[in-house]
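Escalated from tier 1: flavin mononucleotide holo job.
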Amino acid sequence: MDSRRTTLVVGLMGSYHLHGTIDEAVEAALEGARGRGAATRKIVLMKQHIEFCSNCRGCTECAGPDRGHCPIEDDLDDVLAKLEDADGIVLAAPVNFGDVNALVRQLLERMVGYAYWPATARGPRLRSRKTTGRALLITSSAAPAIMTRTMARPFKTLRRMARLLGKRPCGTLVMGLQSPNEGPTETQLERARVRGAELADLSAHYLTHPTEPREHMTA
Ligand SMILES: Cc1cc2nc3c(=O)[nH]c(=O)nc-3n(C[C@H](O)[C@H](O)[C@H](O)COP(=O)(O)O)c2cc1C
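Tier 2 regenerated the structure:
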């Protein structure tokens, strides 16, 4: 059991657009989490130095449960360690061409070290299925939320990312009908606050009851 007294919730802000919809949604979710007593931290992915994966497969070669080391010297280790260490995470990216944007996809490709994939194996195998916390997944789109949920793929990608990080997805939120001239509505931001508060509660519960199944958040 973790000895920390305060639940830690970390938000990954994956939009290129500082102070845009995703940024505001992450801020609101973290505000909700703080309202439940959690400590919070925001990672602005745009401000991190993350290179493209060079497909050297160095990080996938060595066996063992821990993420393989990437030889590229940039901020990858620091970003992943912060997300791994959190009790709850918010993964947030806008929908671009039906899926998460390239910035978040670029980070996901660098996360291949969570898999063991020696040259002799046909495909990668996840190194560990251990769950260490919860994840709230947020996306935004020009399309209405219902269309994004049914026709776009961002949650499939964000879910995969959460699982690699050892976090069990427990809720999703779409900030639909976004235009460059108008930010999210107060109703949408309030939903993000509520989801953030729920994430903090679920993450705190998880700290003390790591094996007990819990209800998901509402929609
Ligand atoms: C290159 C590009 C592609 C986009 N593709 C889609 C799309 O496939 N579906 C959609 O609903 N919105 C799409 N959008 C709209 C963005 O999702 C929307 O502007 C974004 O969610 C706003 O979030 P932000 O302010 O945090 O960047 C696209 C926007 C851009 C710039």
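The pocket of flavin mononucleotide is lined by residues 15, 17, 20-23, 94-98, 140-143, 148, 178 (CB under 6 Å).
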